[in-house]
Specification:
Length: 510
């Protein structure tokens, strides 16, 4: 019999453990027997609402103000689901919402079995896109209210029932088996994703050829990376491919050559005396004790260092530290002061020439595989990005003080950030970008949302609590989604950002 529970989450912000709504549909013998849409108060450590997320699903902090907490909703969900297999379209995300929300609240993961309709669709259908609306339409169902949690969960039901009919499957296990998909499992401290497996039932790992174009200054370049535990965001093979693409060397086991150990299934609620660790993690700890320099990295950290990123933005561990029961506070245990990251990095000496055609000047920074430019051409590139340099250039990852040629706002940006935004054909100036973005979002919500000026004193309080000096709003009136200008009290960096982003503080002290 085709019995299961379909589920879909919406989140309050970019942190995955910030559920603000959930839709569930229970199926018995292919028929709907119960369905619910429930607003959720996200875990306190991740409770802010991002204007971007709200523009997607329309849910605000006011909508969930009187809603049950995540702890309460989780208890109800576990009872509602019972022994069913849970089905979600991109189960890595929706089951990940449960995992990260539990992490943020310091509670153990519930025991669940789940199946990913996105993975099944990729095996069962040949489509140019496997997004929920596209897959739904391909099986004869039109999704009318995308990003409404109940509507999305109901759409999953239609997809699963139709794919089961085509496969001649009478149960979810048979549907999964017909397409060689593993039913995922989650329990306290354990996670195994719903992914495609080989016909032998075993996952195989193949190291890709070295990437000759990898950035030698990248965080993973030349480092041996080992993974332990189940990853939520991607398969192990994709993780290996990402390491290779970034110039690293993926390996199966921890050895004296290992530089980085990425730990999946990390939940601080399960850390206690006598806790069990994987053999790879235990081996890494032993090598650390013996003096080997091995960096332990969460999956969230791993995602942040891909494509040349760094660990200067807020990570999962920052959110969890505030949420852990019994976490020490400054009143009981003084925090160890961190040395702030400087805005300007020292110049990198080089004998290379500028990459601009016909230019014979010396380059301002070194690189092995990417273009480099002289100071004059760097200044021109910044101008083409709509900014005027105020500071001298020292390094592509240094923060330069700039002035926007359009709005005149001064703010600090890295040169590599300017290059990135120009490549994406996006406004570099964050003041201009957020003004335009906020106006577009409000236009979308015209007629069904009431946009009122924000309380500047609240934004000032957010900035002050995050170690920032609030300078001024950058629009008049200042509405939801509009930018504000702040200065870090530690390093002095000027930033044009939304009020919600100011709550994360400055990157220099993280």
């Amino acid at each position: 019999m085709l019995d299961f529970t379909a589920i879909d989450f919406e989140t309050a912000n970019s942190f995955q453990g910030s559920p603000c709504a959930v839709g569930v549909v229970k199926i018995r013998d292919g028929q709907v027997v119960a369905q619910h849409h429930v607003f959720v108060r996200p875990p306190e450590a991740a409770s802010h609402f991002s204007a971007f997320n709200t523009s997607i699903h329309g849910i605000t902090a006011d909508d969930v103000r009187d809603a049950p907490t995540w702890r309460q909703v989780l208890a109800w969900l576990v009872e509602f689901i019972g022994d069913d297999i849970v089905v979600a379209h991109n189960a890595g995300f929706d089951i990940g919402v449960i995992r990260y929300a539990c992490m943020a609240d310091g509670i153990e993961w519930p025991e669940l079995h789940f199946l990913c309709s996105l993975v099944i669709s990729r095996k069962a259908l040949s489509l140019p896109s496997y997004t929920l609306p596209f897959v739904a339409e391909s099986v004869g169902f039109r999704l009318e209210n995308h990003h409404n949690a109940l509507a999305d969960a109901a759409t999953v039901v239609h997809i699963v029932i139709e794919l089961a009919r085509r496969a001649g499957a009478e149960t979810l296990e048979e549907l999964a088996g017909a397409h060689h998909i593993r039913v995922g499992t989650m329990a306290a401290g354990q996670y195994q994703g719903s992914v495609s497996i080989s016909r032998s039932g075993q996952d195989s790992l193949v190291a890709a050829e070295a990437n000759p174009d990898a950035d030698p200054d990248g965080y993973l370049y030349g480092r041996v990376v080992v993974f332990t535990g189940k990853l939520m965001s991607m398969t192990r093979q994709l993780a290996w491919d990402e390491v290779t693409r970034n110039g690293g060397l993926p390996a199966k086991t921890s050895t004296k050559h290992t530089n980085v150990l990425v730990i999946g299934d990390f939940n601080p609620a399960n850390l206690r005396p006598g806790a069990n660790f994987s053999a790879k993690a235990r081996r890494a700890f032993e090598l650390q004790d013996a003096g080997q320099d091995i960096e332990l990295m969460t999956e969230y950290d791993f995602l942040r260092v891909l494509d040349g990123g760094d660990l200067t933005s807020q990570g999962l561990e920052d959110v969890l530290t505030a949420a852990e029961p019994g976490a020490s506070s400054p009143a009981t245990e003084p925090a160890q002061a961190k040395v702030p990251r400087p805005l300007a990095l020292p110049p990198s000496s080089t004998t290379q020439s500028c990459s601009a055609p016909g230019c014979a000047c010396s380059a301002a920074f070194r690189t092995n595989s990417r273009p480099t430019w002289c100071v004059e051409h760097i200044t021109q590139i910044v101008l083409e990005g709509g900014l005027e340099r105020v500071d001298a250039f020292t390094h592509p990852r240094s923060y330069m003080l700039t002035r926007c040629l359009k709005c005149g706002v001064q703010a600090h940006y890295r040169f590599e950030y300017v290059l990135q935004k120009r490549g994406e054909q996006e406004l570099v100036c964050r003041a201009c970008y957020w003004r335009q973005w906020g106006a577009e979002v409000r236009e979308m919500g015209k007629g069904w949302r009431d946009y009122r000026p924000v309380d500047i004193s609240e934004v000032q309080a957010i900035a002050t609590a995050s170690g920032l000096e609030y300078i001024q709003p950058l629009t008049a009136p200042s509405l939801e989604g509009d930018p504000h200008l702040t200065r870090c009290l530690t390093c002095g960096k000027l930033s044009a950002q939304q009020a919600g982003d100011a709550s994360f503080g400055c990157t220099c002290s993280r």
